[in-house]
TrEMBL record:
Residues 20-173 form the Tc1-like transposase DDE domain. It comes from Streptomyces platensis. InterPro entries: RNaseH_sf (IPR036397), Tc1-like_DDE_dom (IPR038717), Transpos_IS630-like (IPR047655). It holds the Pfam family DDE_3. NCBIfam families: transpos_IS630 (NF033545). This is Tc1-like transposase DDE domain-containing protein.
Amino acid sequence: MGQGGVALRGRLAAARGAWLVFEDEAGFSMTPPQAKTWSQRGRTPVVRVRGRSRRRISIAALTCYKPGHRSRLIYRPRRDDGNRDGRKSFSWRDYRDLLTAAHQQLGGPIVLVWDNLHVHKAAELREWAASQDWLTIYYLPPYAPDLNPVEGIWSLLRRGWLSNVAFSTPEHLVQRIRRGLRHIQYRSHLIDGCLTVTRLTIRPA
């Protein structure tokens, strides 16, 4: 479908009161991202971290936009239980449940935009999505993270709440992630700013 067709479908969805929702997922480990900080001249700051734990937490997040409404951030965590044979990433059922919860919270139809991750195109998920009259799905072009506002959410987390932190336990990491995401949730201008960076705009139908 050409850009004109996509725009037309988007306008029709907006006329039905749809939310434009972007999705992405990211993994976070016990090793903190590094960021610039202040220190005394000649004394380089050192952050000592525990290197024995390789456990990660994965987050799937949705940024939700609708003209005339406060922008929303919805997310779900998935923790690595350390089981070598256990699944570490989100399954198609996890995405189904996340989208169902988002539909209930937003109270209206959803136009979902996400990347071409293999699980996003799983036959079971596509079959389920086709049966939901409130859900329309579009896929981003390959290798286009700059078009996804959720990337901005990850950047805020890594540059703010997670940078230069010596995590003592996996629970400590989870606590910091939740604190950062809750902060963003209550500040819609941050969510709007993530959309602005992509240079995408949302206009009333």
